[in-house]
Sequence to fold (151 residues):
Amino acid sequence: MSSRLAIFLATFFYVGKCPVAPGTLGTLAGLLIAVALHSWPAAYVGVMILVTVLGFLACGPAEKALGKKDPGCIVIDEVAGIMVALFLLPLSWPVIVIGFFLFRAFDMFKIWPANRFENMGGAAGIMLDDLMAGIYTNIVLLIAIRWAMRM
Fold:
């Protein structure tokens, strides 16, 4: 993969090149995709897998081309992570808003084992910690939704 293509994909079509809060904007881009595809589960799964695979393929070469470990402009990991976070959840405004903020918190604080994944380096280190943050978010939201339904 050429370095130009890797950077284009890893920055999620240059969303990550925004000088202000690129990770948050990447998360927002993924959230919009998740909401748009929510009614089509097969398409959701397909896009989620495609974004994840492209992330694993592009992040390593992009990181090398940019000359920095896990540069902030690489946001395809946030796109994949938020899609995992909202996967198979009943989307409502509270779920979307809480999911967004929970995912950003889990992404920033890197609770074990996400912190160990981040230390792997390369594409795996970039992608796996955000996918783990997505799993954490999904689990917390599932518990909260089930708890709220019992009230």
